[in-house]
Write a structure and sequence with these properties.
Layout: H1 2-18, H2 30-37, H3 41-46, H4 52-64, H5 68-84, H6 89-92, H7 95-99
Length: 117
C-alpha cells in the first residue's frame, strides 16, 4: 500500500509539474508550486538526505511568492497535497529546516491559509 501511495504522489506531482506553463506568470499557481518542489518527492517518500535541487526549488518558491496572495495560493496548494497524502506530511515538514530556510506555515491538511500574510 505504501508503494502505491508513493507512486501516486510521484505521478500527481509530476503531472502537475508537466502541466505548468514555462516561466512564471504574474501570480503563482499550483503548477509553479509543484514544479518547484518536484525534486523533494524522493526525500518525502523515502527519507535520507534532501537533494540540493529540492532546497533550490524551495528557495525558488519562496522568492516567487512575493505577495500575501501568492503565499496564500502556495499554502492552499500544499494543503491540498497534504490532505491527499497525509502519511508524508511529517517528513515534508522537515525540509525547510534541512534546507536552512523558513516558510510562513507548516505543511498540513488543516492549515488555515487565509491567515497567511
Amino acid at each position: 500500500m505504501a508503494g502505491s501511495s508513493a507512486s501516486m504522489v510521484v505521478a500527481l506531482v509530476l503531472a502537475m509539474a508537466l502541466l505548468a506553463p514555462p516561466g512564471r506568470a504574474d501570480a503563482i499557481t499550483c503548477s509553479d508550486v509543484y514544479g518547484d518542489l518536484l525534486p523533494c518527492v524522493a526525500y518525502v517518500q523515502a527519507g535520507g538526505s534532501v537533494a540540493p535541487q529540492c532546497c533550490s526549488g524551495l528557495r525558488s518558491l519562496l522568492a516567487a511568492a512575493r505577495t500575501a496572495d501568492d503565499r496564500r495560493t502556495a499554502c492552499r496548494c500544499l494543503k491540498t497535497i497534504s490532505a491527499r497524502f497525509p502519511g508524508y506530511v511529517s517528513r515534508a515538514n522537515t525540509i525547510p529546516g534541512k534546507c536552512g530556510v523558513s516558510i510562513p506555515y507548516k505543511f498540513s491538511p488543516s492549515i488555515d491559509c487565509s491567515k497567511i500574510n
